[in-house]
Design a protein that fits this description.
globular; binds S-adenosylmethionine; 2 domains; alpha/beta; Rossmann fold; six-stranded parallel β-sheet
Length: 243
């Protein structure tokens, strides 16, 4: 795994073994959005793809399955711990996925390397969204495509809406700030930033999916241990408060 010594320390940061739990507990929530993201750029066999802010690799793995052995998938994230889980989860049958520890606004990839840059639930955490999108544009070939997913307002999701008052009550301002940041890049902000970064034919689509989660008593607790706002609740009052 290649790494950059200048990785940015802000944004969605998980401690300890949380990246493993992120992979487990985020999977059912992310799954339908992964497919929508891949469909948005019409991935074909042979394409060269970058999964930006790849985390534990949901998008990279699905992209690798679609581009096939003649394609190539690179995955970049500033968290080495997230990419370690991603590397461990990458099945051998896929084309090799190249993992690189790097902040979104300082990628090591050469100009014009990719047919598409994909970013699932990452843009809202970039400290300089404009710089990250300019960097995405640099690594795209002429005519290449960028697609991202980011949550709409939290009151649009029953799962997140019900957590809102609880996160603030039990985790205080720090937890609330982390939680709010997950919803800080609505479509209008992202499309404006893409246009500002020089992208053309910028469109947004609203994607709504019904997701059946495992029994919530265990699931919510596990999921909260794998997101920064849940970690902030635990920091504020230990595992009992999180429970
Ligand atoms: C909510 S997770 C999404 C991960 C993955 N894309 C997925 O589909 O599950 C946000 C990811 O963004 C990464 N991240 C946040 N800020 C970043 C930055 N400035 N540069 C690179 N990665 C960043 C975090 O390390 C984390 O893996």
């Amino acid at each position: 795994m290649a790494s950059s010594p200048q990785a940015d320390e802000t944004g969605f940061q998980l401690k300890g073994s949380a990246p493993e739990r992120y992979e487990e507990y985020s999977a059912p929530i992310m799954a339908p959005f992964v497919e929508a993201l891949l469909d948005a750029v019409d991935l074909c066999p042979g394409h060269q793809i970058l999964d930006l802010a790849a985390g534990t690799g949901f998008v990279a793995r699905a992209a690798a399955a679609r581009v096939g052995p003649t394609g190539h998938v690179a995955a970049a994230d500033f968290s080495e711990a997230m990419l370690k889980v991603a590397a461990a989860k990458a099945p051998r049958m896929y084309p090799d996925i190249e993992f690189t520890v790097a902040p979104a606004d300082r990628l090591p990839h050469p100009d014009g390397s990719f047919d598409a840059v994909l970013c699932q639930q990452g843009v809202q955490f970039f400290p300089d969204l404009g710089a990250a999108l300019t960097e995405a544009s640099r690594v795209l070939r002429p005519g290449g495509r960028f697609a991202a997913t980011a949550w709409a307002a939290r009151d649009r999701s029953p799962y997140f809406a019900v957590q809102s008052p609880v996160v603030a009550e039990y985790g205080g301002a720090a937890a609330e700030a982390y939680f709010a940041s997950a919803f800080s890049c609505p479509a209008e902000r992202l499309t404006a930033a893409l246009t500002e970064a020089g992208f053309r034919e910028v469109v947004s689509h609203e994607a709504t999916f019904g997701i059946t989660l495992p029994p919530l008593t265990d699931f919510v607790r596990g999921h909260l241990t794998a997101v920064p706002w849940g970690q902030a609740i635990e920091d504020a009052g230990g595992p009992d408060r999180l429970a």
